[in-house]
Design brief:
single chain, about 50 residues, mainly alpha, 2 helices, about 55% helix, about 0% strand, elongated, 5304_t:CDS:1
Length: about 50
Amino acid sequence: MTTPLKFKEFIKEKLLVNSGILKKNIISIATAARWLNVLGYFFQSQKQ
């Protein structure tokens, strides 16, 4: 399951490091969620 937090960590730890961009906290969780929406992911609450 992809979550905004996991996506943010992927961007920070893998994508930006491999690109040579080393800034910390480059995107927020809200930004990661928006990017995932653009990529076709939609979020919903899981009911018990």
